[in-house]
Every structure is written in C-alpha cells, then in structure tokens.
Design brief:
Elements: E1 6-11, H1 14-30, E2 36-40, H2 58-65, H3 67-71, H4 87-100, E3 104-109, H5 112-118, H6 124-142, E4 148-149, H7 158-166, E5 171-172, E6 184-185, E7 188-189, H8 202-205, H9 216-223, E8 241-246, H10 250-258
Parallel strand pairs: 1-2, 1-8, 2-3, 4-5
Antiparallel strand pairs: 6-7
Helix pairs in contact: 1-4, 1-10, 4-6, 9-10
Length: about 260
C-alpha cells in the first residue's frame, strides 16, 4: 500500500511569507506535490517571543535549529525594536498566488504571537475578536471565506473550537494527535472535524538523535513506513499530516519533497 504525506505548511512570519512561500511553491510544483498553506494574516510580532526564553525547552530548541539563520535578525526584532510589518497587507499578492497555483489555503491566525501565548487563558469575546480578524483579512485577500483553520502553536480553547463550527470551516487542524476526530467539550459536540498533525515538525527533529539536513527526509519517511493501526483516511487530505513551520525552513521542506 502506498503511503502518502499531507504537507501542512504553517506560515508564521513576514519573511517566511515573502521569501519562503514562493520557494516552497516552486519546489512543490517541480515535484508535482500538493500542500496546504495556512497563513498568518496580521502583524508579525515575532520579536515578542523573547518572553519564551523562560519556558522549559525553549533554549534547547533555539540552540538546535539556528533560529537566527532561519528567521533573520530583523524578524527577531519585529514588534520590539522594529515595527511589526502587516503580513496580510504586504504579502496579499503572494498569498493569492499560492491559491492560483492550485494549492489549498487556510487561516493560521491573525497575530501569531498573541494567539499562541494567550489564547489558552482567554474568554469568548477575546477569542471571537481574534478569529474574526483573521476571517475578515482572509476574505479581503482572497475574495472568499476561509474553509480551513490551523491554530498557531496548536493552541486553542473551547471558545475557538465552537467558533470553528459557527464560522463554517469545513475542517480544522488545531491539534496534535493520531487520527481525525470530532471534538467534544463537556458532552457538547463541535461539528467541525479536527485533522491533527500526526508527525513531528522538521524543526523539532533537526539536530536531535543524529538527525541532520542530510537524513531528515528519510527519517520522516521511516516514521510512516508502517500503516496506521487506526485505518484513517482523509479523502484528498490523505494520511499523516506533517507540519512545516515557516520562519524559512525551505531547504528542509525541499529535501522532504524530493525524497
């Protein structure tokens, strides 16, 4: 049985959108591969992530993944010493180009840092405002309502889950897990299926347990060598979604597509 990877590309930053996305589109087209691009649509406040330095594991990740090389010094200062560029305003043409090239697109967030760092503890009004900003900006850019949502950092709350249904998304990929599911909250069924990320992201694997740029693609393929016991299928969404997070890990993504 042929195993297939569903590539889920979470685009976090202005630089990732402006430089990384066109390169990935070209690479995917060259190898006749498909992917879904989930865009951050508002201000790039990446510099404010400096507060995460006190979180367990953050410094280890930084040391393994060459954050300065992948993101660039300007990105790491956006929202602090440098003004935050509005990704949706500045990169709308690039985003439309992804759709026009035949790739599926969806919402990642409006403000990545704000969502990832705060949504877990926020209420309904805050959550609705953030999601509505993203929906409005997506609609402004693409001329149509979004049909898919992938929460930044896999962070969500019960209000966001309800809103994925009320806002009419066909599916969401807000979680990590092993198989598709219909969310429930205290016996409340959320009628928007979740297609979780089932594989590690490339930046989580890089420079760990002997994994390098030279062998990371083969490692990912080995993780999918055995068919899933859940027997899950996802129509055209296929099996085993792998998340690529842009910063700008375009070389890593290219090595996976070419494998």
């Amino acid at each position: 049985m042929t195993q297939q990877l569903a590539l889920k590309i979470d685009v976090d930053t202005y630089r990732g959108t402006r430089e990384g996305v066109p390169r990935l589109v070209g690479t995917l087209q060259h190898h006749n591969a498909q992917a879904t691009f989930f865009f951050s649509l508002g201000p790039d406040h990446t510099g404010r992530a400096i507060k995460r330095v006190f979180r367990p594991g953050f410094l280890g990740k930084v040391s393994r993944t060459s954050v300065l090389e992948h993101y660039g010094i300007k990105t790491l200062l956006y929202g602090t010493l440098l003004p935050a560029p509005d990704i949706g305003r500045k990169c709308a043409e690039i985003m439309r180009g992804v759709r026009d090239a035949g790739f599926e697109t969806g919402i990642h967030c409006y403000d990545h840092i704000r969502w990832q760092d705060y949504v877990a503890g926020k209420g309904e009004a805050w959550t609705r405002r953030e999601m509505q900003r993203a929906v409005d900006r997506y609609t402004e850019i693409f001329g149509e309502a979004p049909h898919a949502h992938a929460a930044a950092g896999w962070q969500t709350n019960r209000h966001a889950l309800r809103l994925t249904q009320r806002m009419g998304f066909d599916y969401s990929s807000d979680t990590r897990g092993t198989h598709p599911f219909i969310p429930t909250w205290q016996a409340e069924i959320i009628a928007c299926p979740q297609l979780p990320t089932t594989l590690p992201t490339l930046d989580e694997l890089m420079n760990r347990d002997g994994i390098t740029l030279d062998n990371i693609a083969q490692h990912i393929l080995q993780l999918t060598a055995t068919p899933s016991a859940s027997g899950r299928t996802r129509d055209t969404l296929l099996e085993e979604p792998l998340a690529i997070r842009l910063g700008e890990p375009t070389t890593l993504a290219k090595s996976l597509v070419m494998a």
